[in-house]
Design a protein that fits this description.
heterodimer, A: 11 helices, elongated, B: alpha/beta, Rossmann fold, 10 strands
């Protein structure tokens, strides 16, 4: 059985090589597949970066429960506020180790313009999180440079936002018109459409004119406490508030950030795969036309149309694999390049993404190659005698 | 037993009502080691005869026995498999596959005939050596002379030890020296391997290599020239 299969693969290999196309056309196809693979991988990576940002903040291990105002189930799109003193009531409940208020708001950030500069400074709208700095719940999940804010007039910024603003730790920026100093850069806090900014809660409350108020309360449970039981206790104590465990809160936020973006990414990725498939169709179609005489000879010698077709499909599959692998390598290179020179565009890959995209392209390429193979039936082996 | 036998074969080409009878009751038997020349001008049905003998065309009437098996009883797949094992082809132009080396061209035929790889490698090397083209084994057809190409084609036709070699104007595109060398090789190697060779040609230089000469005219074979 094994020997037969080896023989078969040897025949297919030789047929595939015998029917290989012109170098320029082959190179164009491989290049096209590489480019579309790169496109799809970048889209997948962009989505993964987004998800990473959500997981990094909303899914940080220190927070077991998120308490939100009635009708709010996510951090991204919410406008409600909890009654003053909510965190104290929660902290007093059994099973709660820590309950820290968070105030979130969109703020406008611009670098302090250098003296004499006539240029309008870059301006960003960022998602500000006021938390009990520097070490209580809800602060930056990871500091990439500098440190977390420690009090008034200090902020930490997502590093991509800092890059876009052209600021670094030590620089001053204006947040809603107020001058503050950047003391740290955070990582994993880039949601593509916006980025996070972290500031001291008291400062944020004062700046927004919301003394004592909070948007959420982040809760850490005491050891061996059942999140369900504590959640029920919070809801009993504070009827109407929403209480979410970490997984649910992450899922809610992912839904919010991806709901508009995901369909568009899916459409573009599908188009990318379709373009690769069309390239393969054109390549194999060209092969069948260019190599008509050779195919007639093969059929006359005793090769079946199915075997010749399989040889062509195998050849196309190899080219797609080569193109997809090249696209994967380009995607990795691009991510490194962006990380060094343009950190505002963050690409996060997973090994599974490469495998999935490779398989998708391979499947599309093999299916596409099978379309022109149907034309093999029109080739008469007797053409070998006329060649 | 004949390596190839055609009994009362009729074959029309073209569509009704303009169909023309290319073969009219052709009967022929070729024994192993025999080289039968089918002579005649272009368009008399020589190539049709080869195509019917190979099972590439199905006769309208009559019987074709290839290596002792009737092609009429076989389905397309079985016929194709039988052809790959029992027939070797030499075309007017070598019809070698350009993208493969000379050696790979020969190996591909062996693979199609499902010959075990080590044996195929051995036979390929031996034939290329015997045909004087071992030096060109790793070269592509485009870099070979016409005579070398045709000798590689002879190796391809014989590598799987077929019962029958069908040659269509094998020397048609060669000069006399190259044509002579190809004809000699084909005759000697086919005889040594016990293959019957059917050569369709109008090249008179091949007459000296034939064990039997038949003339084809108006779809009929006429004996008595050899």
């Amino acid at each position: 059985m094994k020997t037969g299969s080896r023989k078969g693969s040897g025949t297919l290999r030789l047929i595939g090589r015998a029917l290989r196309g012109r170098r320029a056309r082959t190179a164009l196809t491989v290049g096209g597949v590489a480019a579309t693979t790169l496109l799809v991988l970048v889209l997948v990576a962009a989505h993964r970066s987004l998800a990473r940002g959500v997981h990094a903040y909303a899914g940080q291990p220190g927070i077991d429960l998120w308490v939100a105002p009635a009708g709010t189930d996510n951090l991204i799109r919410s406008s409600g506020l909890l009654p003053a003193g909510t965190e104290r009531e929660i902290a007093a409940l059994p099973g709660v180790a820590e309950a820290d208020p968070l105030l979130r708001a969109f703020v406008t950030v611009e670098p302090a313009p250098p003296a004499g500069s006539g240029r309008a400074p870059a301006r960003l709208t960022l998602l500000a999180i006021g938390y009990a700095a520097p070490a209580r719940l809800g602060g930056p999940p990871e500091i990439a440079g500098g440190r977390a804010p420690e009090g008034a007039d200090e902020i930490a910024l997502d590093r991509a936002a800092a890059h876009r603003l052209g600021v670094a730790p030590g620089d001053s920026v204006r947040v809603n018109g107020r001058s503050v100093r950047v003391v740290g850069l955070s990582r994993g806090t880039n949601l593509l459409a916006t980025q996070f900014l972290f500031s001291d809660l008291a400062e944020t409350r004062a700046a927004l004119g919301l003394p004592g108020r909070s948007s959420f309360v982040a809760v850490r449970l005491a050891e061996n406490q059942d999140p369900g039981a504590v959640s029920a206790a919070i809801q009993a104590q504070l009827p109407g508030v929403g209480v979410f465990n970490r997984e649910t809160f992450v899922a809610n936020n992912l839904r919010e950030v991806a709901s508009g973006l995901l369909p568009m990414l899916a459409v573009i990725a599908t188009l990318g795969i379709a373009v690769a498939a069309v390239l393969v169709v054109l390549l194999v179609q060209g092969l069948v036309e260019d190599r008509r005489a050779e195919i007639a000879v093969l059929l006359a010698l005793g090769a079946g149309a199915a075997t010749v077709g399989a040889g062509l499909v195998a050849r196309a599959g190899l080219l797609v694999l080569a193109g997809a692998a090249a696209g994967g390598a380009l995607a990795l290179g691009l991510a490194r390049l962006l990380d060094s020179f343009l950190p505002s565009v963050e690409l996060t890959y997973a090994a599974g993404d490469f495998l999935l995209v490779l398989l998708l392209f391979l499947a599309a390429g093999v299916l596409a190659a099978a379309v022109p193979v149907v034309r093999l039936r029109r080739i008469d082996p007797l053409e070998a005698f006329r060649a | 037993m004949s390596a190839l036998e055609l009994r009362g074969v009729w074959k029309s080409r073209g569509r009704q009502p303009r169909a023309v009878a290319a073969l009219r009751g052709v009967s022929l038997a070729a024994a192993p080691g025999e080289l039968v020349l089918i002579e005649g001008p272009s368009g008399v049905g020589k190539t049709t005869l080869l195509a019917v003998a190979a099972g590439l065309l199905r006769p309208d009437a009559g019987e074709v026995l290839l290596a002792g098996r009737s092609l009429m009883a076989m389905g397309p797949a079985a016929k194709r498999t039988h052809r790959a094992r029992a027939v070797g082809f030499v075309f007017q132009r070598s019809n070698l596959l350009e993208a493969l080396t000379a050696r790979e061209n020969v190996l591909l035929m062996a693979a199609l005939a499902r010959m075990p790889r080590p044996e195929a490698e051995r036979e390929t090397g031996r034939l290329l050596e015997l045909l004087g083209v071992a030096h060109a084994a790793d070269r592509r057809p485009g870099t070979l002379s016409g005579g070398e190409e045709q000798r590689v084609a002879v190796a391809r036709a014989l590598v799987h030890r077929p019962a029958v070699v069908l040659a269509d104007e094998p020397t048609g595109s060669l000069d006399s020296a190259a044509g002579q060398a190809v004809a000699e090789s084909l005759q000697a190697l086919a005889r040594a391997r016990g293959a019957a060779v059917l050569v369709a040609t109008h090249d008179p230089r091949l007459a000296g290599f034939a064990t039997r000469r038949l003339r084809m005219l108006d779809g009929r074979l006429h004996d008595g020239m050899g």
